[in-house]
Amino acid sequence: MNVGDGSVVIPSGPVTWIEVPFACTITKVTMLADATGSIVVDIWKSTYAGYPPTDSDSITSLTPPTITSDVKSQDSTLASWITSISAGDILKFSVDSCSVIKKLVMIISVARS
User: Are 33 and 67 in contact (CB under 8 A)?
Assistant: First the structure.
């Protein structure tokens, strides 16, 4: 997932949605930024029938994907996350906060179920 246009600091709020076409388990999240800065991105999940997901549907618990004063981060521990995704689930990505970063690539690694 790409976030930001590279010309202004990424604003807070929802940035994109995806439908996951197959059952899987999230195994790792990698974040790569265009500049040293900080960003926190939450991930919300719902079924198609339950769309749209909201903040109460967060799958990241108290450990959302975060870069802190760096250009990258990677998390394969995913402490307290809900990592199980069903075919057809909708994931919504929402920026909680950001400073300096104007472009972000977020890679969600999964193991197909």
Answer: yes
Predicted model pTM:
0.96
Domain ranges of the chain: 2-112
Q: Which helix (H) or strand (E) holds 46?
A: strand 24-46
Q: 2-112: which CATH architecture?
A: Sandwich (2.60)
Give the angle subtended at the CA of 7 by the CAs of 108 and 71, to the nearest 5°.
45
Question: What digits encode the pLDDT tens for the residues 84-105?
Answer: 999 999 999 999 999 999 999 9
User: What tokens does 12 get?
Assistant: 């807070």
* pLDDT of res. 38: 98
